[in-house]
């Protein structure tokens, strides 16, 4: 394809090596027995919508205002729960990583900060890594010693009937200034061994739920394996050093991935609720 016949980039986007640069921010604060949102600033492809509160929890939905992330984009969400606040963040739809007008990789960073006796529940829809895309996604989480966290992240490798794009992820969690978890994963073309039996095999969806609960110090979760069938979906719950547990799952597709993650989370939530009582 010659430059004269190449498709034009989407409206409003840069044609240079770097596409959209955007940082969206939300801050939750405890006030009069409820959680309010003194900061709710969307940017670029991220628009925030307030949802109906539940008990003392403020709820926010991330709505996509444009196709993102595309190659060259530099995107970031910063969410902070101040002392005593409870914040739930979800998304209106799956995030679709696409190739875009440049071959440069895209970045999508999420930084969560949770103060003492505060909680963030980060529960968005999955990331779909479309053919030709190249995304680096990172979560950086800073927790106070009495903070709580529920974080779910899911990757679906390729849309129906197409090969996957390339996605590299990193999750770094610090609690009280000390590293609790630091892990990296890489899938798709160029990632060594990602489709071998040692990693995903024939599966094309993977995800995890991270649970941080101070009461786990006294009542830690027990290791557990959930298998629908080896060809369908598998998940394992692993206690971590510190008051935390990690549920990791693989499945042939996003639907079955969500189903087994939900089943594993329901089991862990029952145990967590009993620990709080």
Computed structural class: mainly beta
What letter string, H or E per element, gives the SSE order?
EEEEEEEEEEEEEEEEEEH
How would you name the oligomeric state of the polypeptide chains in this document?
single chain
Q: Percent of residues in helical segments?
A: under 10%
What gap, in angstroms, lies between the N and C termini?
Answer: 64 Å
Estimated share of beta-strand residues: over 45%
Question: What can be said about this structure in brief?
Answer:
This protein is mainly β.
Q: Can you walk through the features of this model?
A:
It is found in: Cytoplasm. Belongs to the UreD family. This is Urease accessory protein UreD. It comes from Streptomyces atroolivaceus. The chain has 277 residues and is mainly beta. The chain is built from one helix and 18 strands. The protein has two domains: 181 residues, no CATH class; 60 residues, no CATH class. The strands form two sheets. Strands 3, 4, 6, 7, 9, 10, 12, 15, 16, 17 and 18 form an eleven-stranded mixed sheet that branches. It has a seven-stranded mixed sheet with strand order 2-1-5-8-11-13-14, with no helix packed on it. It is globular and about 50 Å long. The N terminus is likely disordered.
